[in-house]
UniProtKB/TrEMBL annotation:
This is SAM-dependent methyltransferase. It comes from Streptomyces thinghirensis. InterPro entries: SAM-dependent_MTases_sf.
Length: 263
């Protein structure tokens, strides 16, 4: 769903052969794959989902580098390893390699501004990641756009309505205008441009839409406070206005990105 966001950022920053990218919360590795296809050396870090990281490894790690071969083949493989994609399960500190050049780009494409407390979690990741980047390196933060321009907002309100208000962190909240700028400021980063990108959410049918939205974790607090059946029922009702006559679901959204620079 966020491919237009990745493309816009990579085009604006001219991501290519000279780029060394650290992807925070890399998930299944799609943004890393797109950057690698442009010639970037990529490292992805995530601690949330071993299953998604396994998919990232299948997408990015060439099997040929681990296969036994001749002495010449092994020499070429050793040379290639220096810039080979890396997928690290853990925190940014676990991605540190004293022998590797500093990162020139750090991305946090997991959109903030929809979960209470998500900006604080991003701040902790940036505190570990920015020391691994070079001076003046680009740090890209992403977030949801204005609620009135995101059709999915009305669907995500179901998560807030059903979640226990006392739980606080983990429940959905509407995005605020300065979410990204505040995170950058707290991390000691210098803003250097921003943009908005249309990222519509499209699904083959209502069932696919429900599964996709539930997989984001935004409804976990609601499920814990009520039950799966109640969440499924209200989510289905919220999706109904966006279902087309052919059964597909289409929700236009706008996402923001902020480019900041390390000191």
């Amino acid at each position: 769903m966020l491919v237009p966001l990745y493309e816009a950022v990579f085009e604006r920053l001219d991501v290519g052969g000279g780029t060394r990218m650290l992807g925070l919360g890399c998930g299944s590795g799609l943004a890393l794959l797109m950057a690698a296809s442009r010639g970037a050396a990529v490292t992805g870090v995530d601690s949330r989902s071993p299953e998604r990281l396994a998919l990232a490894r299948r997408r990015l790690l060439p099997e040929t580098l681990d296969a036994p071969g001749s002495r010449g083949t092994r020499a070429r493989a050793d040379a290639a390893r220096a810039d080979a994609p890396r997928i690290v399960e853990g925190t940014p500190r676990d991605a540190e390699d004293p022998l590797a050049p500093a990162f020139t780009l750090v991305t946090a494409f997991e959109p903030i501004g929809c979960l209470a407390g998500d900006s604080e979690g991003l701040g902790e990741l940036l505190a570990q990641a920015t020391p691994l980047a070079g001076r003046g390196a680009a740090v890209v933060l992403a977030g949801w756009g204005p609620p009135e321009r995101c059709a999915t907002t009305s669907v995500l309100r179901v998560a807030t309505k059903l979640a226990d208000p006392l739980r606080g962190a983990g429940s959905w909240r509407p995005a605020l205008r300065d979410d990204l700028e505040e995170v950058a400021q707290r991390a000691g980063l210098r803003p250097d441009g921003s943009g908005r990108v249309a990222c519509p959410f499209g699904y083959a049918d209502a069932g696919s839409a429900a599964r996709g939205l539930l997989s984001t974790g935004l409804f976990d607090a609601a499920i814990a406070a009520t039950d799966q059946e109640q969440v499924d029922k209200e989510l289905s009702e919220a999706l109904h206005p966006y279902q087309r006559p052919d059964g597909t679901v289409w929700m236009p959204n706008v996402f923001r990105y902020l480019i900041a620079r390390t000191p």
